[in-house]
Each structure stands twice: as C-alpha cells, then as structure tokens.
Amino acid sequence: MTDLMSRVLSRRTARTSDAAAPERPRESTWRLCRELSPLLRLLILTQLAFNIGFFAVLPFLAEHLGTAIGMAGWLVGFVLGLRTFSQQGLFVVGGWLVDRYGVRPVVLAGCVLRVAGFAWLGFAESSWTVIGAVLVIGFAAALFSPAVESEVARQAVAWEEDGHGPRTRVLALFSVAGQAGAFVGPLLGALLLAVDFRTACLAGAAVFVLVLAGHLWLMPQHIPGRVRVRERGGARTLLRNRRFLALCCAYGTYLLAYNQLYLALPDEVQRAAGSQAPLSWLFALSSVLVVFTQLPVTRWAGDRLDLHRSMTAGLLLIASGFAVVAAARPTGWTGATGLLPAAGFVILLTVGQMLVVPAARAWVPDLAEEGRLGLYMGALSSVSGLIVLAGSAATGFLLDLGLPAAVPWLVLAAVPALAVAVLPRREKGAGTAA
C-alpha cells in the first residue's frame, strides 16, 4: 500500500504543480470511453444495464404490493425497508467476499441471484413469497455492487497513474451510466406494465441474464494487480481507521440529504402545487443534469480542486439547496412560482452530488488497506446507510413537530454544512486530499 500511495501522491503532486499548463482539449463521453480499458468499459456498461433492470421493476413495487397482493400499508413499508436493509446494509459483506474470492465469482453470483429474485417476484402471490423474493433481490445487489464499484475504483487509480488524468473522471462516467440506467429503467417498466407486473419482472430478469452472459464471456478469471486476502482482521482495522470513518460520516450526510428527495421534497411540492404530480419532473431534472453535466463538472473540479475541496464544495452546495427552500417558505408562494425553490433545491443538490460522489469513491483507495478495497467500498455504503436510517427517522419526526415552516429545512441545511468539519484532512506534503 505504501508504494501505491507514493505513486498516487507523486502523480497528484505533479498534476497540482502543472496547474498553469494549457487546458486539455474538451473531450466527449465517447472519446473518454475509447480511452478506457476493455474491463472498465465492461464494468461501466454493467452499471448501466444493472440500473435499467433494477428500475424497470422497483419503482412500481409498492403499488403492486398494495393493489395486486393486497398488503396493508405498514407491511408494504416493511417489505421496502427489508429490501433496503438486505442491499445497503449488507454491502460490507459483499465487499468482504470480493476481497476473499475475487470480483468475477461474486459478480456472477449476484447476477444469478438477481435473475432468480426477479423471476420469483413476478410469480409471488403471497406476503411470505414476496418477502423471500425481495430479500434475494436485495442481497444480489449487496454482492454485485461492491464488486463492481471496488474494481472500478481500483482501475481508476491505475488509469490515473498511467497519466490519463484524475481518477474522478472515470468514477464520474460510472455515475453517469448509473443515472442513465435509473432514467431509462422506469420508462421501460412503465411500458411493460401495460401488459402486467410479471412481464416487467421477467424483463428485468432478462436484463440480468444478459449481464451474466457478458461477464461469463468477458470478465477475466484473474484481474492483474488484484490481490486476494485470506487472513482475518480487516473489519477490526477498518473500525480503527478514523480517517475512513470520517469520510463515511461525511458521505452519509450527503446520502441523508439525497434521501430528502423522497421525504421532505414531496411535502414541499404538495404544499406548493396541491399535488405531487410535479415530482416526476423534478426527478427527471436531476437525472438529466447528471447525464449531461457530470463529466464537465468533474473535469472542471479535477483541474482545480483536490478531493477534500471537491467534497467540501459539494456539501456546501447541498446545504445551500436546503437554505433556498428555508428562505422561501415564509413567503408562502404557491403554483409555478412556489415550485421554484424546490427546483433550486434539486439543482443545487444534484450539482453537489456530482462533486461529492466521484470524490468520495476516489478517496477510498487511498484510505483502504492493501487488498481490502472491496471491504472498504462496501463499508462506505453500509456505514452511510446506517446514518441515513437514523437520520431519516429523525427527519420524519422533525417534519411532524409542527415547527415554523423554515425550521426543518434550516436544520437539514446545517447537517451537510457541519459535515465539512468532519472530512479527513490532507496528508502533509500531498498535492491533494488523501
């Protein structure tokens, strides 16, 4: 790890010292993709396909459970919570398995489980069978995602060391692929629901059959440079890694803020518009912003900001988004004018996300132990998920207290702003955060 750190820091220091050099010509997404290794292209396309298959089904699950299956509202919420726990909460388990057994077998196992889970869900007709299918679907992602994310991060470091540019550009492209899948998936699912929910599930399963076939054919048995760790003790060392846990806490505040798209924002839209119909347009606005501006934003940040400053700027932009709504709430605006603060919040949150997410994922390889990148990438999601779980409960309680309209939004603005102080500091002599 020491050799890796020295190479990364020397590369970054050199890049910082050359800040006055002429800018590189502006590049297209296609040109950047052509520069990547075949493995990176496979992993990024995998993320696109993964989200298409996932979001073709999951956005419509709650309505299916309530209408077709006849579940009570509390049970629908419980099932959705189980899916989140079996996915986000178990990322750390998937990451540990990646470090121990390698990327390929864990990705293939995740694909097989996802195919089985979606097929099972399509034919499930009782509460217990639905719960079983949802648990399989969630655990499949807990295997699949840490494997793909950790290898993309490791390959991005190697790409940076080879002189192609900041690793955040690769991770930004990975985010674009995921967001594009999240945008296309619900459109595909809505078309398939014209037939029935089972058809949507089987189509989602078919997507993962294609992903499985692609990895069986193209994923190498052994990825050069990937070290498998057999001995125990990684979790104990991780829990003593204060710098990494600080990063998890800061990243968790971003995820908590992002979760307000589903908790605080619907209330604001309902107040301003009298219905939640504009929500779909605001979600589409967020997706389109990421797809079309993530790479330019990341390129701009990579030329001017280190990882610490990029996350700082992103968190402060997110805080300002909450502050915009807080400042506008006392006016009581409604209609199209009343939706402007909500749109401002979505835009600022999304731009902040575009700075925070690639920087956080790029930072993890510098803080992880040698050979345990999967564990650390999984832990980033799991620890952050616990923060979101506790924070969302607190936010719901705060919104129900009947406080002055601006107060909950001001409190939410303070959380990412205060998280800036939690971010790990730069190493002395480093050209960027490490």
Automatic annotation (TrEMBL):
Keyword Transmembrane part of the UniProt annotation: yes
Compartments (UniProt record): Cell membrane
Gene3D superfamilies: MFS general substrate transporter like domains
Membrane topology: Multi-pass membrane protein
Keywords for this protein: Cell membrane, Membrane, Transmembrane, Transmembrane helix, Transport
Domain Major facilitator superfamily (MFS) profile positions: 39-428
Alphabetical list of Pfam families matching this protein: MFS_1 (PF07690)
Ranges annotated as spanning the membrane: 39-62, 68-85, 106-124, 130-149, 170-191, 197-218, 244-265, 277-298, 310-328, 340-363, 375-399, 405-423
Region spans: Disordered: 1-22
Chief place of localization: membrane
CDD domains attached to this UniProt entry: MFS_MdtH_MDR_like
Keyword Transport applies: yes
Identification of the protein by name: MFS transporter
Species this chain originates from: Streptomyces violaceochromogenes
